């Protein structure tokens, strides 16, 4: 079975990227893990019987595909002139490719988080804070679920006695989180006599919401969907290593000595 230099399966790699491009263009959707479903847009495209469906065709036809490709420098090099690409060293090209792959994985992570049940997403947020080390060595994460009042979905106990607490609110939303939510959460922190709180969402925060959080100093931290996906990627939560490369250079000391 053909493999790529990192040891990964070539067939899997090609299939993964093909499904990613088709999903970004909106011609297929992912109703559940491991499944693809053609959309009305995809049916319309097939009805035209194009000779070839590739990234160039998808980018030319669909704004979603163009926007996604333009989010990284790698896409700029891929669609720009060959002179730009030729000016990069092999290591720079590899770094740009890594950024494109990471962008794709983070987008996939966020899509999956948005499709979770609210309770499962609340547990994901607590898992992430634990993975980031906020529960310390002897602390723990407590999921409150339906018993949480005032928008508090969970608590991170940073020590065994619970003297240091971080209150958590998880918002699996499509629309932006507004300032009212931040103010209500701040009121909940005051009611619990808590000093620290985190609001994580799969969407974004309005400008007013961020201003309200800033006025409270470092008492409340806001984490939007893009930051959430990046933190999950960096901490290794919800992802696994599919391939790896080692870059090596001659050891001058060895040859000179």
Describe how the helices and strands are arranged.
Elements: H1 10-25, E1 28-29, E2 37-38, H2 40-47, H3 55-61, H4 63-69, H5 73-79, H6 82-86, H7 90-114, H8 118-131, E3 140-143, E4 154-157, E5 165-171, H9 179-191, E6 197-201, H10 207-215, E7 220-223, H11 225-235, H12 252-256
Parallel strand pairs: 5-6, 6-7
Antiparallel strand pairs: 1-2, 3-4, 4-5
Helix pairs in contact: 3-4, 7-11, 9-10
What does it look like?
The chain has a five-stranded mixed sheet, with helices on both faces. A two-stranded antiparallel ribbon has the order 1-2. α3 (55-61) packs across α4 and α7 packs across α11. 49% of the residues lie in helices and 11% in strands. It has 257 residues and is of the alpha/beta class. It has two domains: 10-114, no CATH class; 118-235, Trna Endonuclease, Chain: A, domain 1. 24% of the residues are buried. The longest helix has 25 residues, at 90-114. β5, α9 and β6 (197-201) form a beta-alpha-beta unit.
Number of helices: 12
Poorly predicted regions are 73-83
Structural class: alpha/beta
Radius of gyration from CA coordinates: 23 Å
Could you tell me how far the N terminus lies from the C terminus, measured between alpha carbons in angstroms? 43 Å
The major beta sheet can be summarized as:
5 strands, mixed
From the spread of the alpha carbons, the general shape counts as: globular
How large is the share of residues in beta strands? 5-15%
Please name the CATH architecture of the largest domain: 3-Layer(aba) Sandwich
Helix content: 40-55%
Overall mean pLDDT = 85
What is the H/E order?
Answer: HEEHHHHHHHEEEHEHEHH
Give the strand line-up of the largest sheet: 3-4-5-6-7
Let me know the number of strands.
7
Tell me the number of structural domains.
2
Please name the CATH topology of the largest domain.
Trna Endonuclease, Chain: A, domain 1
CATH class category name of the largest domain = Alpha Beta
